[in-house]
Description:
about 240 residues, mainly beta, 12-stranded antiparallel barrel, about 60% strand, globular
Amino acid sequence: MVLLTSTGCAPGHKPVGGGSAPGPFAPGDVASHLTPLAEQLEVFHLMPPPAYRQLSYAVTGEGDRTHTDLMLVTNVAACARVAFVNYLTYGINPGWQVGYGDFLALATVSSNTLPLIRTVHHSIVESVEEIEGGLFPLRVGNTLRFRVTRRIELRDAAGRSLQRYAESATFEYQVQARQEGYAASQPPVAGDIFVIAQTVRGPAGEVQRKLSFSPELGACVRQVTLRDHQPAAEARLTRWW
């Protein structure tokens, strides 16, 4: 999740005004907003449901080493079936996210608690379009492509709006391999692990990731972010319950 701290629109951002910005919202508010998107989100309806209450990851990259806990709270959006809330504890950026794990975030709120930069970043999906293919049930060779438009607002600690804009990005997925089990967590994860290439193209450029997803767990056991086709950051599942 990217936390924006600039008050000017980045290249490719489309400013919005008036009531079109998301404004403050809570996880429970997301279900009604997603209802009109039920048909577009059908591509995720066969995604295996989460089989855990909490996941814990070790995150490394760029010389930094942190620890992240993601806690499942509820299937908040019935129309999205397996969309769920994670409460995020990314060091200085606590918040929450509703979505399909590492595949697609539908709504996020994150807070930057640095002493001199206290801001809250709100993002919610407005549309999912240009859908091609499908991932689930997972099979090697499956592909999926779609375009997402989000409404975004940056607010200060007092709730004043600093920046509002709409942002679009294209997501592409390809199931590249199937592996057997994941032994690096407590307890180990049994069954198939599918390696999925994810490419996201948006205003900030292109981001590539390798997602190792367990249908048995309903979550990724490993996520590698690539830069110039080389690993730049990694999140590894260490325990789940």
